[in-house]
From TrEMBL:
NCBIfam families referenced in this protein's UniProt entry, alphabetically: PRK07326.1
Family matches, as InterPro entries: KR_dom (IPR057326), NAD(P)-bd_dom_sf (IPR036291), Sc_DH/Rdtase_CS (IPR020904), SDR_fam (IPR002347)
Gene3D superfamilies assigned to the protein according to its UniProt record, in alphabetical order: NAD(P)-binding Rossmann-like Domain
Family of the protein in this entry: Belongs to the short-chain dehydrogenases/reductases (SDR) family.
Keywords assigned by UniProt, alphabetized: Aromatic hydrocarbons catabolism, NAD, Oxidoreductase
Protein's name in the database: Short-chain alcohol dehydrogenase
Record keyword Transmembrane helix present: no
Pfam assignment, any one: adh_short
SUPFAM superfamilies xref list: NAD(P)-binding Rossmann-fold domains
């Protein structure tokens, strides 16, 4: 089992939801985390809250995954702070849901640019550091990356693409000792699509569950790679 204490994670969209929950778990394991947000204020506030745990260390970085230069700058700040990157968790994402008649070009572009192109930018920006550390890339796809649904044209396209992208770069990068996994969750208790997590979400996957999964992946011997992981709530409500 690999020791992950003092390893460094770069988490896109880390101020709430899955990104924040993953940061909590990784810090509990003694890791250092750089969390990004389009708002420096939000990133700093989330990092300050995370640092109250007294374990690991959190650092907030402003970046926009839709801009390659922004991602390069954010990765460089994380490296200047912590020295390297051992894990890149491409978590930032959003969704617009509408029929093809109602989906606007702007909505389509925002989903694809964030959920798919933004992951490409994040991976490209962190790649040289990950080669040096023989690190881990984990992307957050979705069950929507293999299961299409009505009004999901943009979201399905982004997540189908992300699943394929992740599996392809897994084959590209294993020659460098970099492991790539994509996690494909079903319903997670987050703020996604304007939802406010509440007690009725107890049946859903919790953000910290994803964090425990990522910690477990990192602890696996480097010879082993679960490259694509589907995860569902074990007991969803009866319809």
């Amino acid at each position: 089992m690999t020791n992950i204490e003092n390893k460094v994670a770069f988490i896109t969209g880390g101020t709430k939801g899955i990104g924040y929950g993953v940061a909590q778990i990784l810090m509990a394991e003694g890791m250092k985390v750089a969390i990004t947000s389009r708002s420096q204020k939000a990133a700093d506030e989330a990092a300050a809250e995370l640092n109250k745990s007294g374990k690991g260390e959190a650092f907030g970085v402003e970046s926009d995954v839709r801009n390659f230069e922004s991602q390069q700058a954010a990765v460089q700040k994380a490296i200047e702070k912590f020295g390297e990157i051992d894990l890149l968790f491409a978590n930032a994402g959003l969704g617009h849901f509408a029929t093809i008649e109602d989906m606007t070009p702007e909505q389509w572009s925002e989903v694809i640019d964030t959920n798919l192109t933004g992951v490409f930018y994040s991976v490209k920006a962190g790649l040289e550091s990950l080669k040096k550390s023989k690190g881990f890339i984990i992307t957050l796809s979705s069950l929507a990356g293999t299961n299409f649904f009505a009004q999901g044209s943009a979201y399905n396209a982004s997540k189908f693409g992300l699943t394929g992208f992740s599996q392809a770069i897994m084959l590209d990068l294993r020659q460098y000792g970099i492991r790539v996994s994509t996690i494909m969750p079903g319903s997670v208790a987050t703020h996604f699509n304007g939802h406010t997590p509440n007690e009725d979400d107890a049946w859903k996957i919790q953000p910290e569950d994803i964090g425990e999964m990522i910690a477990s992946l990192m602890k696996l011997d480097a010879r082993t790679l679960p490259s694509k992981i589907e995860v569902r709530p074990s007991m969803p409500p009866s319809k």
